[in-house]
Design goal:
By secondary structure, the chain is an alpha/beta fold. The protein is 43% helix and 12% strand. The strands form three sheets. It has a seven-stranded parallel β-sheet. A five-stranded mixed β-sheet has the order 2-4-7-6-5, with helices on both faces. The protein has a two-stranded antiparallel sheet with strand order 1-3. The chain starts with a helix and ends in a 6-residue tail after the last helix.
Amino acid sequence: MTNREIAKHFELLSKIMDIHNEDSFRSKSYATAAYRIEKISEPLSEKKIDELKTIPTIGLSLAEKIFELTQTGNLKILEEYLQKTPKGVVDMLQIKGIGPKKISLLWKELNIESIGELEYACQENRLIGQKGFGLKTQASILANIKFIKANSGFCLYSEADNIVQLLTNLFENLFPESLYCPTGAYRQQQDVMDKIEWITTLNKEQVLNTFKEFNVEEIIDNENLLTLYIEGLAPIIFQFVNNETEFYLNLFKNSAGNAFIDTFEKDFTYPLNLSSEEEIFSENHLANIPPYLRIDDYYLKPAKENRLPEIIQTNDIKGIIHSHSTYSDGINSLEEMALATKEKGYEYLVISDHSQAAFYANGLTAERIKQQHQEIDRLNEQLAPFKIFKSIESDILYDGNLDYEEAVLNSFDLIIASVHSNLKMTEEKAMQRLLTAIQNPATRILGHPTGRLLLSREGYPIDHKTIIDACSEHNVVLEINAHPRRLDLDWIWIQYAIEKGVLLSIDPDAHSIDGIDLVKYGVIAAQKAALPTLNNLSSYSLEEFELFLKDRNYKK
């Protein structure tokens, strides 16, 4: 163990003690020890305690700890602090611009326990109300998190989507006669992925020239494959083919799961010459199965019988449900959110700011609710026939009750009930909270049902079938939260919800004007479950949505 490695242990100990708000003199003494150890030229790992304590800058206590560390590889006092500190909190020490004291505040005041949770909090504008934080700090934190994620090896669908759209535009401008298409996990619309795959008739030189303006950290050239590593993304892999037939054949095979391909090759054949992927289906008298339905072979039989389901598309969304404004933790004002929603072609906006229990998000007091409702009434007169609905994202409290008294809850058009605090629960506790909230007559939508943050935080454990059954019994809508880090309810439970007659709602959880557009990622996730437009609340027209609010049993 080098002196630098020894010093890092004491440096970490000092920082974790600060996170726990321990005596500042003690924590500083370990920081000083780390500095002194690193400056010593002779290797400390080769010395015994008696030799260590003779070094002018090292006393007996420090000598004992250094000897313990070099002999065992562990430092007992450090291990004790690590055991009572969530790993994600320790990981936050990597982020430049926030020291241990700020991390302590984030952890203990805002319950943020991972880099992913911190990123999400910044995106929701939750830090600016805290002492020592502001918009510039938030922006700096986000930039540093992006840098850290460069080595994570995974990325969200939305992150892959951004690079895919950028590259597609570049290829269209530079090589309009060539063939290129993303495939694999991206084309199957997976929530997260460990690589972004392409198939192309371009050559390697053309691809590399396209990337010359990118910060490519590493390139691996392996016969017909080229892998590029770029900061903040999963590896980008290009597979090179020679002609049109090879292109479409490989595109087809690489855009499906093994079960799909095995069944297809057993029952059908590939045409000899191809000028499109659709020809593979048409030549076999099959309806075209989109890549997001090719995960397994389930849809091959319906395709043969020409009875594939009608699946929701982004332009089927008629209203924006679940959005936030500057009344709580949004970036844009209520009027700005309404005008932007109208300009984007939607018929209505459901404004669902946080309730008072969400103090970290500037949740609304009863008095501020009245103020917001007065503004909504004024804006509705100005913007008609576009309409803003009065909603709240009510915290599900620890006992399962909703935030606010009944009279306040009754002043809203719609209640979205969500868990935001005390997320570390057993399944028994999580189920008790959710079921109590679902049974509350005020609850119309259950927001992000598991509280998960993809690549950052597992959701609290729940029995999905029991939750869905309860929503069916009490006519509660299940949200498909479209934020790309949530996508919660997970798409694998959508079909069960449909079978039980539960209405779904694809909602962007928008905290800004740009956040409205996140609704597309909820649609992309729902498509994998073949969600029909009919079963999605945010696809209701304004007239249908008003009928839904009046009649709890109404379904179009």
